[in-house]
């Protein structure tokens, strides 16, 4: 085999190795993108599953005016004072 043919064979091997390395890198990137997509989808599902619990008491009690709801108009409890609803 002459020197020129050996050079061509070596050049082709290097080109093949570079092509294989590039394909392996692209495959790694695709796997990483798929992993990131799965993680993002999982986070989105977890976010939906959280219960809707208010963070602050004013959200539960009519804008923060009263912690105890006022009696309904026309009820017997209104205006009877401290012993409302007792038998004494």
List the keywords.
88 residues; mainly alpha; 2 helices; 0% strand
Give the topology, please.
Elements: H1 3-48, H2 57-60
Description of the structure:
The chain is an all-alpha fold and 88 residues long. The protein has one domain. It has two helices and no strands. The radius of gyration is 37 Å and the shape is rod-shaped. The chain starts with a helix and ends in a 28-residue tail after the last helix. The model has no long low-confidence stretch (mean pLDDT 76).
* Domain tally: 1
Span of the ends, CA to CA? 120 Å
Order of helices and strands: HH
Q: Share of helix among residues? A: 55-70%
Strand content: under 5%
- Give the mean pLDDT: 76
Unreliable segments of 5+ consecutive residues: none
Query: What best-fitting shape do the alpha-carbon axes yield?
Result: rod-shaped
According to DSSP, the number of beta strands is 0
The major β-sheet equals: none
Number of helices: 2
């Amino acid at each position: 085999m002459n020197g020129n043919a050996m050079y061509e064979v070596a050049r082709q091997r290097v080109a093949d190795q570079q092509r294989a390395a590039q394909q392996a890198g692209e495959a790694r990137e695709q796997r990483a993108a798929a992993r990131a997509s799965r993680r993002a989808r999982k986070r989105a599902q977890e976010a939906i599953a959280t219960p809707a619990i208010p963070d602050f008491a004013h959200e539960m009690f009519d804008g923060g005016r009263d912690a105890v709801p006022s009696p309904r108009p026309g009820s017997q409890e209104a205006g009877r004072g401290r012993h409302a609803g007792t038998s004494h």
